[in-house]
Amino acid sequence: MKHRFSKHYSRDEARALLPQLRDWLAELNRLRVEVERYDQRLGGLNVAGQDTGGATVNAWISALAAMQQLLGEFHRREIVIKDVSRGLVDFPALIGGREVFLCWESDEDDIEFWHDLDSGFAGREKLA
Fold this sequence. Notes:
The chain is an alpha+beta fold. It has two helices and five strands. The protein has one domain. Helix 1 runs antiparallel to helix 2.
């Protein structure tokens, strides 16, 4: 059987990553707010004859690069971010030989739910 993901997490493997994921998600949210602030600032400067270079653009690019680096950490581990602001992530897993996601949201203490690859959050079921 061909799987969509090459990495599949056990519940214990996913649990071990939760402290790191909490930190990364908090940083992603901080950077997201920062980028939005720079976007608004730069949008106002983008009028004819206005120079949009300088410190603001450098800070905006630095924040974007930091976000890209953090997102790359998730991608490398094949952990799927469903919603950055909620801290909703899915870990590819195998349950009964079937490829599924272990589903976790950052306000949850532990990984307690799973769902089919295509059902999403609404299809979450309690892990046994």
